[in-house]
Design goal:
Blueprint lengths: L4 H24 L4 H10 L4 H6 L10 E3 L6 E3 L14
Helix pairs in contact: 1-2
Bound molecules: zinc ion.
């Protein structure tokens, strides 16, 4: 276990921070936050995978799925960024 502030800082920056970011991003993409927390906490570069992977399913407030081409767009966008179909 960490014994002083600097060691705690190290743990937070290199494990808890990427883990937390990864868990949140995974949640917004309809993926398992716990799984991605562990993966990103243990191996920080996997945060990049979390950031760039496709959403698994639409998540209210984060991603919509296009009914026509089934690609995902940001929740705030009104039309599909791939085929231009209006999203409701
Ligand atoms: Zn589309």
């Amino acid at each position: 276990m960490p014994s002083n502030m600097m060691e705690w800082g190290f743990v937070v920056v290199f494990f808890l921070l990427p883990g937390t970011i990864g868990a949140y991003v995974a949640y917004t993409k309809g993926r398992n936050p716990l799984l991605w927390f562990l993966l990103n906490a243990l191996f920080a570069p996997t945060v990049m995978i979390t950031l760039f992977q496709r959403p698994q399913r639409p998540v209210q407030g984060h991603y919509r799925q296009c009914p026509k081409c089934s690609e995902f767009s940001k929740w705030r966008e009104n039309s599909c960024r791939f085929c231009g179909t209006a999203l409701s």
